[in-house]
Design brief:
With about 375 residues, the chain is α+β, with helices and mostly antiparallel strands. The chain is built from nine helices and 21 strands. Helices cover about 20% and strands about 35% of the residues.
Length: about 375
C-alpha cells in the first residue's frame, strides 16, 4: 500500500531539492526575472509572494520547464534540468514535477478518477499501480465517493481537490502551485489553505507556491520569498518577514505597517537598540537589525502600538500624547488613525476598549516593535 512518505522517497536523496542560480528571464528589453537565486530543502513549503508582474509565476514556470529562461541554472534533486552555460533544457515531462493551476486544468469529459490518474496513464504505468495510486490519491483528498462522477458535475472546491489528487498521484519530487485558490470564495479559500498545508505536511513533499495573497503566504509557508520588479527583496520565515522586514517594500507589502521617515542616531546604539530620529526631531527607541547603510525608515506594525486614556500617561520610552482622528469598527478589531507630534499612525486594537474620534490618548510602542528598515 502507498504510504505518506512515498511521494518524496526519491527526492530526499538530496539536501536541496530545488536550486535556482542567477536566473534571468527577459522578453526583449523587458527583464521579468533579474538574477534570482534560492534553494529549497526536502519537504519544505516555500512561497513566492509579490504583486502582479513581479516575476513569481515566471520563476515557477521556469522551474517546471514551461518557460525557457534567458540565462542561469536550475537543479532538481541534484540534477541539472536547465543550464544556459551547458546548453541543458530538460523537457517538463522529464522533470518529475506536478503542477496545480489557477484554472484547475480539469478534463471535463473525464471522471474524477480518470482525471486523477491521467499523469499515470501518460507515463504508461501498470494498470495495478494506476488503480492503487488513483484510489490512494482520492482518499487523501476525501473524494473517493466521487470517483466515477463526471468532472463537469463537480463544484469548484471539489475540482480543486481533484487537481490536488492528480498532482500527488504519480509521486512527484516537487509540487508547484500557481495561485490555485484565487478562483474560490473567501470561506472555501480559507478551508483549502488548511487542507493543502495538511496534505503537504502529511506527504512531506517539497512544494513551491505562488500567490499575491499575504494571508495565504503567512499561514501556509515554511519560508517566503518576497519579490518586486523581478528581484528578491527578502527570504525569511513568515514570523521574521512580519516582525523584521528588510526594507520598506516588505514592511508595506506584508501586513499593515506604518512607515516613518527619519534617520538612525549612530551614537545611541546599544547592540541592536538605537534611537530613531523622526523628521520633526522626535526620538523613537527602536531595533536596527540591518547590515546595510542605506537610507533609513522606521516600520511599526499597526497591531503592536497600544492606546490608553490620557490620565494613564507615565514616564516610559516610546510614549507620546496623541489624538484620535478616526475610529473604524472592523469586527475583530478597531482601526484608529491617531495624530502624534511626529506624524499620523494607524493602530489596530481589540474592540474591548473603545475610543472615539476627537479623544485624547497616550500612544505606547515597545521598542522591539519599532524596526529600522532600508528605504
Amino acid at each position: 500500500m502507498p504510504t505518506a512518505s512515498q511521494p518524496v522517497a526519491q527526492a530526499q536523496k538530496a539536501e536541496y531539492i530545488v536550486e535556482v542560480s542567477d536566473l534571468v528571464v527577459a522578453y526583449g528589453a523587458v527583464v521579468a526575472v533579474d538574477g534570482v537565486s534560492f534553494r529549497i530543502k526536502a519537504g519544505e513549503f516555500l512561497t513566492l509572494l509579490g504583486p502582479s508582474g513581479c516575476g513569481k509565476t515566471t520563476i515557477l514556470r521556469s522551474i517546471a520547464g514551461l518557460e525557457r529562461p534567458t540565462s542561469g541554472e536550475i537543479r532538481v534533486g541534484g540534477r541539472v534540468v536547465y543550464s544556459s552555460k551547458e546548453g541543458i533544457d530538460i523537457p517538463a515531462e522529464h522533470r518529475n514535477m506536478s503542477m496545480v493551476f489557477q484554472s484547475y486544468a480539469i478534463w471535463p469529459h473525464l471522471t474524477a478518477f480518470e482525471n486523477v490518474v491521467f499523469g499515470l496513464r501518460v507515463r504508461k504505468r501498470p494498470q495495478e499501480e494506476i488503480e492503487r495510486q488513483g484510489k490512494w490519491a482520492l482518499d487523501l483528498v476525501q473524494m473517493q465517493q466521487y470517483a466515477q462522477r463526471p468532472a463537469s458535475a463537480l463544484s469548484g472546491g471539489q475540482q480543486q481537490r481533484i487537481a490536488l489528487a492528480r498532482a500527488v498521484a504519480f509521486s512527484p519530487d516537487v509540487i508547484l502551485f500557481d495561485e490555485p485558490l484565487s478562483n474560490l470564495d473567501a470561506n472555501l479559500r480559507a478551508q483549502m489553505r488548511h487542507e493543502i498545508k495538511a496534505l503537504q505536511e502529511a506527504l512531506g513533499v517539497t512544494s513551491i507556491y505562488v500567490t499575491h495573497d499575504q494571508e495565504e503566504a503567512l499561514t501556509m509557508s515554511d519560508r517566503i520569498i518576497v519579490m518586486s520588479g523581478g528581484k528578491i527583496q527578502q527570504i525569511a520565515s513568515p514570523d521574521e518577514l512580519y516582525n523584521l522586514p528588510a526594507n520598506s517594500f516588505v514592511a508595506n507589502f506584508i501586513g499593515s505597517a506604518n512607515l516613518v521617515a527619519g534617520r538612525v542616531d549612530a551614537a545611541s546604539r546599544a547592540g541592536e537598540l538605537v534611537d530613531f530620529v523622526a523628521n520633526d526631531g522626535s526620538r523613537i527607541r527602536a531595533i536596527d537589525p540591518r547590515s546595510s547603510s542605506a537610507e533609513h525608515m522606521l516600520a511599526v506594525r499597526a497591531v503592536y502600538p497600544t492606546l490608553s486614556a490620557k490620565a494613564a500617561q507615565a514616564a516610559a520610552p516610546n510614549q507620546w500624547p496623541c489624538k484620535v482622528l478616526r475610529s473604524t469598527f472592523s469586527g475583530d478589531f478597531v482601526e484608529y488613525l491617531v495624530e502624534t507630534k511626529w506624524g499620523q499612525i494607524v493602530v489596530r486594537r481589540p474592540p474591548t476598549e473603545r475610543l472615539a474620534a476627537g479623544d485624547e490618548a497616550v500612544l505606547t510602542i515597545d521598542p522591539q516593535h519599532c524596526v529600522v528598515v532600508d528605504r
